């Protein structure tokens, strides 16, 4: 074969390959992907609304190629069960709280330590900055679940109960309080003198109604989600945890998507998170006003330092798991 003919053949083969590759890419982008997003909260809760907005924006940005169904209100189980399903590849998306991540990846317990954050703005700077980015990336590499919308405020969290207002740690003595299924949270309330009862969120209402628990801990919006005004009289601002919430996506499923769809999901997550940030304080204020209207008595705690001092034993126990005192110092140095 002469050189001109050989060169022409190479160009022809390359062109065929390019057309085939382009065709395969177009076919992949044209394919529809159906996914399920499992959550534990009602449709009107701010977190569920943010996840719904994320699903809508993802569909919009992919011209309907990715359709995400929101399975809210614990239809598919509590957070622990749905995260297990997500990691196993039986679910694409799930609601995440950091306590559940910490149970699987102890370094993430750093964000669950009592009083480790000054407020929600501090939490967001840490979780969305270099510290949180590295911890959640390492978690994704190990678990196969990638964190989206990191640093959604799910606190500060405080105590509601049917027995008495909380003003000092002694007021918690013997009180049966529902906590998340987290050893660190169990240890925190045990150190404060309460009797912690780890329960999935969907079981809280009946447990309180039947007297199995005296109360629970939650940010103000959780008062309405848990129907606390029906069950208890007191809500006290102990502000013990400032947990980050998020969304999780199965990494294998995500990486199998065309790059343009991956980009659309990340963009949709960022926009939904920005909306949530803007709405959070107003939503908390509305929830607190409604709880008061429904008869709950709300009180400030005069000396949080007493509570903080009691939890030193929790720091001592978990210090090595969260990366040592140097890591805690890094968190508290963030401004």
Question: Could you characterize the architecture of this molecule?
Answer:
By secondary structure, this protein is of the alpha/beta class. It has a single domain (32-333), classed as D-Maltodextrin-Binding Protein, domain 2 (3-Layer(aba) Sandwich), CATH 3.40.190. It contains 15 helices and nine strands. Strands 1, 2, 3, 4, 5, 6, 7, 8 and 9 form a nine-stranded mixed beta sheet that branches. The radius of gyration is 24 Å and the shape is globular. Residues 1-25 have low confidence and may be disordered.
Using brief descriptors, characterize the structure shown.
335 residues; alpha/beta; D-Maltodextrin-Binding Protein, domain 2; 9-stranded mixed sheet; 15 helices; 51% helix; 20% strand; globular; disordered N terminus
In short:
51% of the residues lie in helices and 20% in strands. The protein is of the alpha/beta class. The protein is globular.
